[in-house]
């Protein structure tokens, strides 16, 4: 029974903290537009430039036409 005197107030404090964080995020507009982020990946125009990397960057020909085998 004594454990309940400690765990219930701790649970209430944790729940209050998460409620405060949720309200703060809601006021900042984090939940206003939930549709467009999932479509944003379709509108990327170019791949990021890779400098000083061991893997070669994708060439423009490979990106537009796809991989081709010229044997």
From TrEMBL:
Enumerate the Pfam families for this protein: FixS
- Provide this UniProt record's keywords sorted from A to Z: Membrane, Transmembrane, Transmembrane helix
Could you tell me the superkingdom of the organism this chain comes from?
Answer: Bacteria
Annotated region (Disordered) at 50-71
Give the transmembrane region(s): 6-26
Q: Where is the composition biased (Basic and acidic residues)?
A: 60-71
Q: What is this protein called?
A: Cbb3-type cytochrome oxidase assembly protein CcoS
Which lineage? Bacteria, Pseudomonadati, Spirochaetota, Spirochaetia, Leptospirales
Provide the gene name from the record: ccoS
